[in-house]
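Give me the 3D structure for Methylated-DNA--protein-cysteine methyltransferase.
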Amino acid sequence: MNNIFYYETIIGKIGIVENGIAITQMNFARKMPEGININETVLIKKANMQLQEYFSGKRKTFDLPLAPSGTEFQQKVWSSLLEIPYGKTNSYKDIAKNVGNINAARAVGMANSKNPIFILIPCHRVIGANGKLVGYAGGLSVKEKLLEIEKQNENN
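Predicted structure for Methylated-DNA--protein-cysteine methyltransferase (156 residues):
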């Protein structure tokens, strides 16, 4: 059975979902997913602790089991996102190149928008080819805040 628990963070209320083995999803608490127990498990507590460390600039990588659900292409994109270093950004075109199809920037954008585990799978590190911030499930102000946290703490 899947479990969810909500936490107040510097970017708003976040729900963390786990399946007993891995983190499967996070959401911005806009809509309660169906068929999920509200239960603060050990894994969810650990994920929250690591997120709080990330928000305070003390954590640059996460040490959590992740199990996002998606297509084979989405999985490739999300794996590529995990390779973007803390404090750095890639364009959609860069990610398309990394997954083996330079012409798939638009498809990469769609896969990025379907990332069910934002922050832990750092879709906020993907920007437009012109260097502009584009699209983020939590809004561009949240994306900007996450990138700002990383920029400020990149060399710590």
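The chain has five helices and six strands. Let me know if you want a second pass.
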